[in-house]
Amino acid sequence: MRKKKIITIVGARPQIIKASAISRAVALFFADQIDEVIVHTGQHYDENMSQVFFDELGIPSPDINLSVGSGSHGKQTATMIEGIEKVILDEKPNAIVVYGDTNSTLAAGVAASKIHIPVVHIEAGLRSYNKKMPEEVNRIMCDHVSSLLFSPTKTGVENLLKEGFKQEAAGNYTMDNPGVFHCGDVMYDNSIHFSEMSAQESTVLADNKLIEGEYILSTIHRNDNTDKPERITGIFAALQAISKENNVEIVLPLHPRTAKILTQNLPAELYLSIQSNPNIKLIPPVSFLDMIALEKNSKMVITDSGGVQKEAFFFNKACIILRPETEWIELVSCGSATIVGWSKDKIIEAYNRYSNDSSLRFPPVFGDGKAAEFICDMMLKHLS
Ligand code: UD1
Ligand code: UDP
Fold it and tell me: Which ligand is nearest to the CA of 50?
């Protein structure tokens, strides 16, 4: 049988991490059937937002880097579309594989679908039902030009069915007759795979003088939070109050978007009191093995990240979600995560509630840790 050629598009930090699951499955089980070409759009480019993951997670270096960099949504996406179209025309793949909901995902979906190359969307079907979120627009548009849609959760499949997709569609899957699959979460695969390695290799707790089970891990990067002074202020005022009132340490690996905007969007007094609070540790972005160590050993997680919410759940930690809604509603419906937005009072109330709750449940809703193998199998079966 002739090998199938896929082009994997990555750009933002979480996509590089997600792609490692498929690259690993290809290398281990499908090397004689699948050729993978990795294209990095260059959406994330700092060493600690990109290269560190290739080095640490054993992902082959990108074959092509479009070096698009930062910019407005329109300019960034348009430059990516132009670059990806050229790569597809040169490489003539059987399909392109895209992850999640970033501008890199959207650009690849547009470029490939317009020249009739099947799009395989991993993490399809997720919806926040808030189209002001750039990611919601990206994921809806990408789903609707995809030929194979792999949803990590049952809710994701149900969302697609509501939009007219058919799970029982048969035959040759195309953009007009797409195939929808419930496959589990490639990030669950990764959390299992890298957990032991993280325990052996990460020194992040010692480096930051953190004590197992006694600190809070927090990440903040959504534009909806960082770019609105009242929201970022509500969040940091809550973190400051929690750390002071409970004498608890909070470690925040800061996304560059957040690091750049803190002095601008926080009141000077709050910014200075955070800087001088030894219990609040603002640190640069960490590697994935370090992040797993921080998640696994934390007391609780406070975040607006999609990925970090889920990883908190994988490692049986309560999670306070700094957003008005979430695509990962399973976390909230079982009670182990709670949506609070950016309200100082609600964040503090959720912290106090979870600090005294030892009855949290973490049911297995993200598959069996073999989502990537399933996806590769289905690609081989259904891509011509
Ligand atoms: C993007 C995704 C978001 C995802 C996040 C993961 C979109 C619309 N958003 O958001 O869904 O959750 O990645 O982290 O695609 N910057 C740097 N160095 C870098 C990368 C970014 O300094 O390596 C700074 C730049 O000032 C840039 C800003 O961060 O303007 C935002 O970067 P961008 O990729 O546009 O969006 P993210 O907030 O990272
Ligand atoms: N992550 C990481 N280092 C960090 C922060 C996050 O390795 O300093 C990982 C995290 O474990 C998760 C992914 O990056 O796998 C989430 O990325 P992010 O929060 O940037 O984006 P989102 O998931 O919200 O799209």
Answer: 1
Q: What Cα–Cα distance (Å) separates residue 324 from each residue in 101, 261, 268, 338?
A: 18, 21, 26, 10
Ligand closest to Cα of 286 equals: 2
Least Cα distance to 343 among 216, 222, 223, 238 occurs for: 238
Smallest Cα–Cα separation from 242: which of 272, 210, 276, 280?
280
Ligand 2 surroundings by CB, under 6 angstroms? 13-14, 17, 219, 221, 253, 255, 285-286, 288, 291, 305-308, 311
Helices (H), 144-255: 154-162, 186-201, 204-207, 223-226, 229-246
3-class DSSP assignment, residue 99: strand
Q: Could you read off the pLDDT of 122-133 as tens digits, one per residue?
A: 999 999 999 999
For residue 196, what is the DSSP state? H
Its pTM stands at 0.98
Pocket (CB within 6 angstroms of ligand 1): 12-14, 43-46, 49, 70, 101-103, 134-135, 221, 223, 255-257, 260
Nearest-atom index, ligand 1, CA of 101:
11
Kindly give the distance from the C-alpha atom of residue 305 to the centroid of ligand 2, in angstroms, as a whole number: 7
Long-range contacts of 78-85 (CB under 8 A, 24+ apart): 78/107, 80/11, 80/41, 80/43, 80/104, 80/107, 80/108, 80/111, 81/107, 81/110, 81/111, 83/41, 84/9, 84/39, 84/41, 84/108, 84/111, 84/112, 85/111, 85/114, 85/115
Specify the residue with its C-alpha closest to ligand 2, atom 2.
288
Instruction: Retrieve residue 92's tokens.
Output: 């003539």
Catalytic site residues? 221
User: Tens of pLDDT along 262-300?
Assistant: 999 999 999 999 999 999 999 999 999 999 999 999 999
| Ligand in closest contact with the CA of 44 | 1
